[in-house]
Design goal:
The protein has 209 residues and is mainly alpha-helical. It has a domain of 134 residues: Tetracycline Repressor, domain 2 (Orthogonal Bundle). It is 75% helix and 0% strand. The protein is built from 10 helices and no strands. α1 crosses α2, α4 crosses α6 and α9 runs antiparallel to α10.
Length: 209
């Protein structure tokens, strides 16, 4: 006599696993919509949870967006740091020359993160979103400043150069790239982005470098 087949029991997800799934699915929704158009109903359906469950984990749609934004920022900064480090390990001047190239490559490798960050810029009238974007850009700034400081300590850059001013020069290129991508001008910037880095670096170098 054949034994009756027992129904397979579904394993209940742990809270942290459920939260991670919601973040993953919400990231996709925010990246392919606008913040205003992404409803809590859609976010819940894509995450395979109820709206009350969504609120339980994140409090509100804005709370979920801030959590997604924070995660995207951390992942992007980790990728960018690795890219800078690989170049600087061989040649810090080469790393400075290709800062904009590496930033652009990091964005291209993860288009969803790029779109979420752009959504955040559009929502920057909200103080909490603006603070998150400001914190993100500040960390990008610090990664670049470390390279500039290392080049100066190695004797490649003029010792009298203000490190903050030099770093903000590179940041201005990155912000121009971001603006260009938002306005579909990235093709024009891509043609000159490496030369932008070369021109700026030439103004920072010591005569012997």
């Amino acid at each position: 006599m054949l034994s009756e087949q027992q129904p397979v029991k579904r394993t209940r997800m742990r809270s942290e696993e459920r939260r991670a799934l919601i973040l993953q699915r919400a990231r996709h929704v925010f990246a392919n919509s606008t913040y205003a158009d992404a409803s809590t109903g859609e976010l819940a359906r894509e995450s395979e949870v109820t709206e009350p469950m969504l609120y339980k984990h994140f409090g509100s749609k804005k709370g979920l967006f801030l959590a997604v934004l924070s995660e995207c920022s951390q992942q992007f900064l980790s990728t960018l740091q690795q890219r800078f480090a690989r170049r600087a390990e061989q040649d810090v001047l080469d790393a400075l020359t290709h800062i904009v190239d590496e930033y652009n490559a990091a964005m291209t490798d993860d288009p969803e993160t790029q779109r979420v960050l752009f959504q955040a810029v559009n929502e920057a009238s909200d103080p909490e979103v603006a603070q998150c974007i400001s914190r993100h850009n500040r960390k990008v700034y610090l990664l670049i400043r470390q390279l500039v400081e290392r080049a100066q300590e190695s004797g490649y850059l003029e010792p009298t150069i203000n490190l903050d001013a030099a770093t903000w020069g590179y940041m201005s290129m990155i912000l121009a790239l971001q603006y260009g991508l938002m306005l579909n001008l990235s093709g024009e910037i891509a043609k000159v982005q490496e030369e932008m880095g070369r021109v700026w670096l030439r103004g920072l170098l010591t005569p012997e470098s």
